[in-house]
Amino acid sequence: MNIRKLRTQITPQNNDARNECLRSKDRQLIIMLLIQVLITILCTLPFSVVNITSMIFQYLITLFDYGDAINTFYTFRNEMKCMIMEAIRFILTKLGLERFIPSERQGQVRRITHEKAVSTMLQEIHEQLEKTIRMSLQTTLNQVYKEKDLDTKNRFAKYSNQLNDVKTRLQRETYGNTHPGSRENSTYNIVQQ
Question: Does the keyword Transmembrane helix apply (predicted)?
């Protein structure tokens, strides 16, 4: 009865030829898979490149369209401003109120004054920012130096303690576990020997 059970069990065969055949089939399948993947990539790559470039150009075109709309708006605004100023100038001239007409020189003076104010304000902000950065860097450097000094002092104390420990160990080994200040000093030990 046990022999029949053993015959019906599935067991791996130690057949090297069969294993080599399976390995070669696996290699062939892997090569076929890699070739298929490579062909798929090569076939789909041009379409993906075309789609990506068309998408990029489409975004650029929409940006240019927005820019054109903004540009036309500001051009219209400037033209309307000039036309309104001409109309106001014409009306004030007809009414005999030329002294109330804002001259171009006054506009230039206002613009230059505004630009000077802005530039001085920016310069002051720049100087304040530079001072603030210098002060913050100086405080940071001072903190770093203090921390380094403290770290150096701690390390020096640690090394001096280690040196003292080594010194005491050496003295103990040299004097035979006795302290040099005790009655059993080195000369006493030498005399005994």
Answer: yes
- What single string gives the DSSP state of each residue in 126-193? HHHHHHHHHHHHHHHHHHHHHHHHHHHHHHHHHHHHHHHHHHHHHHHHHHTS--TTSSS-HHHHHHH-
- The answer as to whether 12 is a domain residue is no
Region 158-184: mean pLDDT is 75
Tell me whether residue 42 is in a domain.
yes
pTM equals 0.30
160: Cβ–Cβ under 8 A, 6 or more apart, which residues? none
Buried-exposed string 23-59: b where 16+ CB fall within 10 A, e elsewhere: eeeeeeeeeeeeeeeeeeeeeeeeeeeeeeeeeeeee
Count how many residues are written for the chain.
193
**pLDDT cut 70: percent of the chain above it:** 77
Enumerate residues 6+ apart whose C-beta is below 8 A from 13: none
Q: In which domain, by residue range, is 91 found?
A: 36-101
pLDDT at 151: 83
Q: Give the confidence band of 30 by pLDDT, cuts at 50, 70, 90.
A: very high
User: Pick from 161, 164, 165, 190: which is nearest to 175 by CA?
Assistant: 190
What's the structural domain count of the chain? 1
